[in-house]
Design a protein that fits this description.
By secondary structure, this protein is mainly beta. The protein contains four helices and 19 strands. Helix 2 packs across helix 3 and helix 3 packs antiparallel against helix 4. Belongs to the iron-sulfur cluster assembly SufBD family.
Amino acid sequence: MTETKVERVKNATYHDTKGDLFTSFNVDDFDVPRGRDEVWRFTPLRRLRGLHDGTFPEATTPDVSVDVPESASGVTVEKVTRDDERIGTAGAPVDRVGAQAWTAMEEATLVTFARNSSNTDPVTVTVTGRGADVTSFTDVSIVVEDGAEAIVNIRYTGDGTHSDNHEYIVGDNARLTVVVHVDWDDTAVHLGNQRAKLGRDAVLRHNVACFGGGVVRLIPSVKFTAPGGDAELLGVYFADDGQFFEQRLLVDHAEPNCRSNVLYKGALQADPSSDLPDARTAWVGDVLIRANAQGTDTYETNRNLVLTEGARADAVPNLEIETGEIVGAGHAATVGRFDDDQLFYLLSRGIDPNQARRLIVRGFFSEVIGRIPVKAVRDQLEEQIAEELEGTRL
């Protein structure tokens, strides 16, 4: 009798859908990523400072602070270890870097909004880099209990090599708005997993603004666990010379009568004479509608403006549908230059060509920025876009 040896599958899908990716909290369960791996093919592995293969600089305690406004009600902030049963409930990381962050972290930040509490002023979580010569790992868990309403602003600043996991647990009839503002120094490296789990009739508004960092790779995912959920994922990013931004999303419609909308907009500019790497972005959007997710209504869009030579944007929308009993589903992605009709209109009104192009870029982003409910964040993003465009001849 011949004995059959069965080896465990790693870094792969057990089934045929994007939603069934291999996940684990243990870094040893993942192989070291290679450039030819599908999910890493856009990422410059040599620029990750060893986050992907364990050769990262010495690890240190992350600098994570939480500012709770005086108006807050029912908000609890705790520092916990990874063996706390209240964290990790949104699911395990989908890649080796996320598992490394979980395995190596010393503590996590847990913010809980009590049942039926209402908080319309944002709780601010600030992650400050510890410097490029060290590495920091952490987890930020936001739990919004049944019937609660909350706004959370997560901001990254300073320089460093950083990897983390975020999880958002949104209870039944609860509402969470998250703004993730990536404002690192331009030499920072940051890779993050972001997982959301929505209860019955829960609402999630997830906003990402990425302007800083040398290499930033974010993986947001949403899973509906009961009918009636509503998720909106919005993002803006602006890449210059030497910057690489990657957004890799998954919306998993596993329950009936849920809605999702994804809208990301990015711009890129570069100086071909610079000795820095080209400006580069990659956006991959996956939406899965499972066989039992009747009544789903979903759409995803990614728009990119390439402003100069030496810049490249990749946009890959994917839609998997296992049932025809849905309200609607679609996707769109574009990579291009200015809208000639808009430019002609502004020039015909006597506006300087360079100023006209800047107005078009700012208007391009306004559709997303205008939906962010925190005015201070909206104003800051508008200022950052203006600074990005200052002195650039489009």
